[in-house]
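User: Predict the complex with 4BW.
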Amino acid sequence: MISVQSNDLNFPLVEELMIPSEKVAHVQVGNPLDHALLVLLKTGYSAVPVLDATFKFQGVVSKTMILEETLGIEQFELDKLNDLTVIEVMKKDVPCLKKDHSMIDALYKLIDHPFICVTNDDGEFDGIITRRTILKQFSKHYHETLKRA
Ligand code: 4BW
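Assistant: Here is the predicted structure with 4BW placed in the model:
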């Protein structure tokens, strides 16, 4: 069996691959659900990070979470879109990465999540790393390194 050490292959760091915070659509914990749904629909993303007023990462909210919350027994209860805020429906228990983690750390976490948020030591939001980015990197490595071996 061939064992490959990730650092032997000189994989890039999360910092080099992430989408920086200024290019990432996000919502805030106190936003009403109708605002969050509007952001998700306008950007076309299924899910986006949730931040607090001090730019600290708090969780992730998706279209599905919002729609499930507004679905009553027999119909959608659209009043809930105004009455509830993002903090009441978001998923808080999600993994994060730091800028100095390697691409391989990101790969393991991206198996179960379409994107992973990157935070600093104070929990402030630095950006996201996505499945697309990692797949592109592996494709690049395959052509440049593994295919030649
Ligand atoms: O607007 C888009 N532009 C591009 N270039 N690709 C898009 C766009 N919207 C969706 N896609 C593609 C990407 O390949 O569909 C995939 C699934 O999107 P998603 O999950 O279900 O909305 C995208 O795959 P990805 O780039 O690996 O992104 C994984 C997830 O990361 C997305 C979305 O939830 C989140 N995301 C990506 N870029 C983001 C973002 N969230 C906020 N802001 C961003 N800039």
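The first strand starts at residue 19 and ends at 20.
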